[in-house]
Each structure stands twice: as structure tokens, then as C-alpha cells.
Amino acid sequence: MQFWKYIIQFFSSENYTLFVVSAGSGVLCLAAGVVGTFTYLRKRALIGDVISHSVLPGIAIAFMLTGVKNPVYFLLGAIVSGLISIWIVDYVQAKSKLKPDTILALTLSVFFGVGVVLLTKIQHSGNAAQSGLDSFLFGKAASMSLLDVKIFSIIAIVNVVCVLLFLRGFSLISFDENYAKGIGFNIRFIKAFLALLTVVTVAVGVQVVGVVLMAALLITPAAGARFLTNSIRRMLLYSASFGFVSGFLGVFISYSGPGMPTGPWIVIVLSAFALMAILFGKQRGLFARMRVRQNNYIKINNENILKDIYKIGNQGTQTITIKELTEKEKYPSLLLNSTLKRLEKMDYLDLVRGMVILSDKGRLAAREVIRKHRLWEIYLSKYFQLEADHLHDDAEGIEHVITPEIELHLIKLLERPEIDPHQSEIPY
Amino acid sequence: MNDFYIIFTASLVAVNCALMGSFLVMRKMVMIGDAISHAVLPGIFIAYYVSGSTASLPILVGAALSGIVATIMIEWFTQKARLQSDAAIGISYTLLFSIGIVLISKYGANADLDQQCVLYGEIEYVSLWLKPIIGGFMLPQQAITLGIVSIVLIVAVIVGYRGLFITTFDPNYALSTGVFVTFWHYFLMSGVSLTTVVSFESVGAILVVAFLSGPPAIAYLLTEDFKKMLVLACVTGIGCSVGGYYFAKWLDVSIAGSISAVIGLVFTMVFFITSVQKSKADVIST
């Protein structure tokens, strides 16, 4: 009941501020998720961290020059110093033996240090308007105004529109910069444009979540989205949605308790989304990959044991005992027993008092594996001129991988051979 | 005397960071150091919450464990989840930092700790907690802790030099000769997190990162000899601390920020001098 009360309160008109703040941070995270997709794909996730620390001197200088707390001046200052930081990173990397990680860490800490110096200078100068300047360090989601939300929305729209317009260029520099150069793309322009979008987004976002956490708004949704799809359009869509929902939910959660910070909650929700995608993603997720590996392992064991039963039982014509199987091939007994039980369930064989009886289905399956094995041996000896004693090991692995289509192709290519290089007959 | 206390404290941080940072720079792992310096926040919070300060060494070591957690998390993301390494670093430290901030906001009243201090420390006030050493000679509490850690790190680097060196410069050779690469990785990471944890109170996360990356980078531009680089990095770090302190005093600004700025300045000078020399050398050789 309490929960629903809270929900109703959340959306009621009395809680107008709360609604503004959550919408604002949702929109902002969406904007970051969209540009962040390319930051992630270009493997420059940490540049977001550099930019977010580097906007600080720009903001301080903007304040020192104008003496007023005008968000437009702040934004301009932030953008200029953010761009300078990117340029420095690229310049030093091109001109020295230092590695990117050192340059990133050095740039971000020095810019931030200069920013702190300027901020403390402003604070000690006793300017009355300076109070609240350090909200840039930690974010101030709670004091978001309707004007801020409007600015965020404009940024988000600009980001989405630009990304859609330049999707081809952005994708090209993300995946294959050299190719883009080769087909005559103006990659300098595209890169600079992407950098500008990123800097603007970071400069705005810093005001909500603070310098340290801004990097997460760029990378975390994109990383999560990457585990769900291989299509860049979908990735953009997922990343933007992750961002929006997390921005909204983060504010929602932080308002449920007193003194709860907003930025960190947004990041925690984002990370939870990303972690779920990393674990449960359909193709690339950790569990999906583990399942594939497990299934392959099972398939290989099934096929190997069927093959051995077939061979020991004289082309599947005789019944053999489990003991014979253990003596011939050294399978661990646990593995052998579980595999035999599984094969029985799949109707490949029957187990009767220690005896193994292949069914027709099992016999066919065994013949198929042996056929693939021998076809591959012929292929290797014919096209790679390998000696007869070098063929078996390779074929032992590949026999589980060859699909029916490849098999047909092999048969056609080898003109339906009858015997393999070891003079064994090929069972069709 | 206050001047001396502050400079002495900052110099100890500089030496600790220079030792660890030199290895990080050569291993291309400075950003992992950056990540650890933010990710120790939950550990530091717990340490504060339990004991009210980070004064006792066992508590410090406990807090440093959260840096190791961050390292393991990054490894897990890259090895098991196959996330690209830059994103793995970014996600890990922002998440741990967020958890730390949430904990501090919720229970912060008991822990006398705020975000401000995490980011840029309170080196201005080190002399408020003085402790007698020998015969009336006093040192700030933090300097004593930092000094103990410095001794630990110097001993660790000397004793483990061979292992650290070989796994840094030729990990494949190390692996083939049976050196336990993973051990030295975590050995170094433990050092980095210990350094971060003890330094954060006085100088904050940002100056730690500046110290980890700046002096070693400057030293690396000046020498190819790794032993010389270690010494040079320490000296540069101390020099920047002295310069930064007086710069801050002159302008009446944040000391930690000012030291970072001076590091940036020194780096810029060395960077241009060495690149001028290099281009001269190029001209002569052609």
C-alpha cells in the first residue's frame, strides 16, 4: 500500500518538482546514451571521464570573466575546455612515447586540479554569487529547473537528430576508420563533430551527476546495449532507452529516502541494467555463451560415444557391454554413464543389464559422424597433401562441426568417394 | 612548522604514488589506478563507520581490500563477460563510487566524511592532528601513517623488484619461465589500493591520480632506465609538492589542486623540451 501511495504521490501535481527532475534526468541520460554508443564502440569510453573532469576550468573561467552564474556562459566555457582536453590527449599521444592511459589520467587530473584552484580562488575572493559553483563537482539534480529540463531536451533532440543524420559516418569511424578514409570520407570532420556532440552532452550532464559519475552515463548504457544486439540501430535504441529509464528511476529511488543522492542512484540503476544484459543477453550474454559451450560439450560427447559403440560393435551389428566400452576407450565413468543415459532418453540406444543396444536412429547418427570424419580425412589428404598419419586428429575435431550442407558440398567436391585414406569404407 | 608538515605529508604521498605509478605507467594500467582511487570509497566508508577514522593500520588494510575488489571486478568484466577493457574500468569504478556515495549519504552522520574531502582532501588541516614521535618532535597523524606505508612500499618494491620488473616489461617471458604473473599483478594492485586509501584523506582522489600518472610520465620522458625512472619520479613528485604548496599559498587556493596544476606545468615543459631535443636529434641523424 505504501508503495502505491508513493507512486501516486510521485505523479501527483503537488510533486511537480519531482516530476520535472525525473523527466529532466531521464532525457539527459537518453542524450548521453545515444552519443555514448559511439564513444563505446570507438573504445574511447574513458575519454568521457577526461572530458567531465576537464570542463571544470572552463566553467570557473567563464564565471571569473562574466561574474554571473549564467548557464549559457558556463556551457560555453565547459565546451571550450572540454574540447581543449581532447585535443591535448590526441596531441600528446601523437608526439610522445607515452601510452594513452597515462595521458588520459594525467590530463584529467591536471585539468581538474586547475579547476579546483580556480574554484577556490573564486570562493576566497568573496564574490557573493559564487555559492553553488561546486555543484558542478557533484551534480545538483535536486535543484533542476524547468529551464534545465528544456535545455536537456534540446540537447537530446539534437543528439538523436545528428546521430540519425550522420549514422553512416559515425558507424564508419567506429568500426573501420581506414576504410572510411579510403572511400573518401572526411573523417576529420566526422570525428570533430562527434567530439563536439560528446563534449556538449558531458558539459550539460556534469551538472546533474557530477564529474566522477558522468562517464557512466556515456558508457554503461551502451555497454549493456552491446550485449543485446549486433545491429547498431538497435544498440542506439536500447542504449537510449536504458538511459532514459535509469535517469527516471534513479531520481524516483533517491526521492524515496531523505538525503539520498540522485547521481549515484542513476548510476546504480544503469549498472544493474548493464549487468543484467551482460549476464542474460541472448547471444553475447555470459549465460548464453556458457550454454552454447555446454551444449557443444554434450554434443561432442554424445557423438564420440555413439561412434565408439558403433565401431566396437562391428558396424553396429553386435550388442556390446558397457565394460567393453570402458576397456576400449578411457572415458571417466561418471561421464560415460551420464552420456549413455542421455543417449537412451534420446532413443539412440537401449541399456539392458550392462548391455548397449544401438537403435536404428543411433546407428544412423554414428554412421553420420564416421562419414563426416572420413570425408574430412579425404579432403585433407587431397587438398592439403597431408600424410595419412596426420589426418586423424584434425578430423576428430571437425567431425562435430560439419553441417549437413557442408557435408553435401564435400561429397560433391570429392565425387562421392568410397574409401578413405586409411582404406576404410565410407558409410553413406 | 605548518609549512613543513603540509609539504612533508604531500611528499610522502608523492613518493608512494611515484613508486606505484611508475609500474602502472609501464604496464599501461594508469586508468586502473584511477579507477581504484575512486573505487575504494565503499571500503573507506566502512572503515570510518567501524572505527571513526582510518588511523589504525588493520582498518586501512581492510579498506584497501575494496580496491582489490575493483581490480577483480574489472578482470571479471574483461575475461569472463568479454567486455572491452576501457568500458570494464569505467563501469566498475563508477558503480563502486556510487555505492560509496549512497552509503555516505545514508549513514554519513556517523562517519564524518563527505564527498568534497574524497575528491580533493584536506591537506590544509593536517597539522590539527599532531602526534609526538621522539623527544618532543611532532608529526601529523596522517604523515605517520603515510610514512609507514612508504616504508612498506619501498621494502616491497626492493624485495619484489625482480618479479615486478619482469612481469611489467616481458610478461610472456615471465610466464614461460614460470613466474607467477597473476601474483605480481595483485601484489602491485594491493600496493596501489593501499596508497590510495592512505592518501585520500590528505590529498583526495584527484591528486592521487595526478601523482600516479604525472611524475612517472615526466621521468619516463627523461630516462629509459627504469631504476633511474623510479628515483626521478619520486624526486619530481616531491619537487611538485613543494612548488605546488608555495603556489597555493601565494594565490590562497586549494593545495591539492595547485600541486596537480604544477605537475601539469612541469610535464608541459619537459614534454616540449624533450620533443625539441628529439626533433634536433632527428635532424642531425638525417
Number of helices of chain A: 19
CATH architecture of the largest domain in chain A: Orthogonal Bundle
**CATH class annotation of chain B:** Mainly Alpha
Instruction: List unreliable stretches of 5+ residues of chain A.
Output: none
Which sequence of SSEs, written as H and E, runs from N to C of chain A?
HHHHHHHHHHHHHHEHHEEHHH
Shape call of chain B: globular
Q: Any idea how many domains of chain B? A: 1
N→C terminal distance of chain B: 55 Å
| Total DSSP helices of chain B | 12
In the residues of chain A, how many domains can be counted? 3
Hey, roughly how much beta strand do the residues of chain A contain?
under 5%
Oligomer: heterodimer
The gyration radius over C-alpha positions of chain B equals 19 Å
Low-confidence stretches of chain B: none
SS elements, strand count of chain A: 3
The chain pair with the largest interface is: A-B, 63 and 62 residues
Average of the residue pLDDT scores of chain B: 84
Shape-level CATH architecture of chain B: Orthogonal Bundle
Q: Give the number of DSSP strands of chain B.
A: 2
Structural class of chain B: mainly alpha
Task: Give your account of this protein's structure.
The complex is a heterodimer of chains A (428) and B (286). In chain A, α2 packs antiparallel against α10, α2 (16-41) packs antiparallel against α12 and α4 (71-95) packs across α10 (187-209). Helix content of chain A is 73%, strand content 2%. In chain A, β2 and β3 form a beta hairpin. Chain A has 3 domains: 20-284, ABC transporter involved in vitamin B12 uptake, BtuC; 288-358, Arc Repressor Mutant, subunit A, CATH 1.10.10; 363-413, Iron dependent repressor, metal binding and dimerisation domain (Diphtheria Toxin Repressor, domain 2), CATH 1.10.60.10. Chain A has 428 residues and is mainly α. Chain A contains 19 helices and 3 strands. With 286 residues, chain B is mainly alpha-helical. Chain B has a single domain, classed as ABC transporter involved in vitamin B12 uptake, BtuC (Orthogonal Bundle). Chain B has 12 helices and 2 strands, in the order ααααααββαααααα. Chain B has helices at 2-26, 30-39, 41-51, 57-79, 85-111, 115-120, 141-159, 161-169, 171-176, 181-222, 226-251, 255-285; strands at residues 130-132, 138-140. In chain B, strands 1-2 form a two-stranded antiparallel sheet. The longest helix of chain B has 42 residues, at 181-222. The mean pLDDT of chain B is 84. At the A-B interface, α3, α5, α11 and α13 of A face α2, α5, α6, α10 and α12 of B.
